């Protein structure tokens, strides 16, 4: 058995490049008592990892230079030294190192059911991104039937889930994404009411005003930057703004300037709240149960962009900043 890992070789300045990563061979480790030997099957690449590649203080510790990258993964138990697990079981764990094989304490992973959905769903709609959409939208958005919801990063993992949940709650949904192909997917397959391509639209503020004739009641912000400035200019009184992600700013090398939004928030009596999924750690089973039910009933569709090959992890991760994915971006290790 060969084993490889991908380490953070250097911290990026601005946009990450392949040079910030290194792939290297390592020994297959031997599990001790209470441990499992895992083989990674599917590995998640996520925008938040960009924050961990820098050493700025944040809500998660930075990756260490010379150490493996890590994140969500679905893995198969190849050897068990714990009575509750057997070879062949499939588990999820956050975080697992970007490694083909690794040992972990059995208490750090959860077994998943192989049957109801494809295993990779546990990294997307039934994993971190689905739960982020669920709690951020429902808890902060407080949607009411007939309200207008705008979601940026709409064709990505979180955005596709937010838009569909908003439809389940009877809202009118406007999605903002970066290609006409993505817009077609949102409109034709996920039944978004209106869609806007921020790359080709000249005046985003006007485009949002046209798409939202009754104004914006809820804005689910996945991207930040100029797109969010344009959405905020269209909010209604008592609007709710869930700040989920700011991918447009993750590679910024200077503090970004923008409109001072406090007067707007004041005039509109609006609520703006940032959140991280970890805030909902004690409610995850509730979210997972509802998402699973919607997926089984066909109310929530899930699309993935799957890149094959463990060594493609850096390329896949960098691709997030070019919008290579529709739905959840995943690397299949084989
Ligand atoms: P996505 O699947 O949405 O992938 C990222 C997408 O962002 C790309 O496909 C691209 O789509 C878009 N994008 C990239 N660069 C830019 C840019 N400069 N301006 C506008 N859009 C851009 O990722 P996720 O669904 O996993 O995450 C979405 C957001 O939510 C991220 O900001 C992430 O950090 C955040 N997040 C927050 C969590 C939390 O706990 N708060 C948890 C999980 C995610 P396009 O072609 O449309 O440009």
CATH H-level superfamily of the largest domain = Medium-chain alcohol dehydrogenases, catalytic domain
What gross morphology would you assign?
globular
The CATH topology of the largest domain comes to Quinone Oxidoreductase, Chain A, domain 1
Helix/strand structural class: alpha/beta
Q: Give the terminus-to-terminus CA distance.
A: 13 Å
The total of helices stands at 9
Q: List the secondary-structure elements in sequence, H or E.
A: EEEHEEEEHEHEHEHEHEHEHEHE
Proportion in helices = 10-25%
In CATH, the architecture of the largest domain is Alpha-Beta Complex
Biggest sheet character: 7 strands, mixed
Report the uncertain regions: none
Structural write-up:
With 334 residues, the chain is an alpha/beta fold. It has two domains: 151 residues, Alpha-Beta Complex (Quinone Oxidoreductase, Chain A, domain 1), CATH 3.90.180.10; 151 residues, NAD(P)-binding Rossmann-like Domain (Rossmann fold). The protein is 25% helix and 28% strand. It has nine helices and 15 strands. The strands form three sheets. Strands 3, 4, 5, 6, 7, 14 and 15 form a seven-stranded mixed β-sheet that branches. A six-stranded parallel β-sheet has the order 10-9-8-11-12-13, with helices on both faces. Strands 1-2 form a two-stranded antiparallel ribbon. Helix 2 crosses helix 3, helix 2 packs across helix 8 and helix 5 packs across helix 6. The radius of gyration is 20 Å and the shape is globular. The two termini are 13 Å apart. Bound molecules: NADPH dihydro-nicotinamide-adenine-dinucleotide phosphate. NADPH dihydro-nicotinamide-adenine-dinucleotide phosphate binds next to helix 2 and helix 3.
């Amino acid at each position: 058995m060969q084993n490889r890992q991908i380490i953070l070789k250097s911290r990026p300045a601005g946009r990450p490049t392949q040079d910030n990563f290194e792939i290297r061979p390592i020994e297959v480790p031997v599990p001790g008592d209470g441990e499992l030997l895992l083989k990674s099957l599917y590995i998640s690449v996520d925008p938040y990892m960009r924050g961990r590649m820098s050493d700025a203080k944040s809500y998660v510790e930075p990756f260490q230079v010379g150490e493996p990258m890590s994140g969500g993964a679905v893995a198969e138990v190849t050897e068990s030294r714990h009575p509750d697990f057997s070879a062949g079981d499939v588990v999820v764990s956050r975080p697992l190192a970007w490694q083909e094989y690794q040992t972990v304490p059995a208490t750090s992973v959860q077994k998943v059911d192989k049957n109801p959905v494809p295993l990779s769903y546990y990294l997307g709609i039934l994993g971190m991104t689905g739960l982020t959409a669920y709690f951020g939208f429902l808890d902060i958005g407080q949607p009411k039937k007939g309200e207008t919801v705008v979601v940026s990063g709409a064709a990505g993992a979180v955005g596709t889930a937010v838009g569909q949940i908003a439809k389940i709650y009877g809202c009118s949904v406007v999605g903002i994404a970066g290609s006409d192909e993505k817009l077609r997917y949102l409109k034709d397959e996920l039944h978004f009411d209106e869609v806007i391509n921020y790359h080709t639209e000249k005046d985003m503020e006007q485009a949002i005003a046209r798409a939202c004739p009754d104004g914006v009641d809820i804005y689910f912000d996945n991207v930040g930057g100029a797109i969010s400035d344009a959405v905020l200019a269209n909010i209604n009184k008592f609007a709710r703004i869930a700040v989920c992600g700011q991918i447009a700013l993750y590679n910024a090398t200077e503090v970004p300037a923008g409109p001072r939004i406090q007067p707007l928030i004041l005039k509109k009596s609006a609520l703006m709240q940032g959140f991280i999924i970890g805030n909902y750690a004690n409610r995850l089973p509730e979210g997972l149960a509802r998402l699973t039910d919607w997926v089984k009933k066909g109310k929530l569709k899930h699309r993935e962009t799957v890149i094959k090959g463990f060594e493609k992890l850096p390329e896949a991760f960098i691709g997030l900043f070019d919008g290579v994915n529709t739905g959840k971006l995943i690397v299949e290790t084989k």
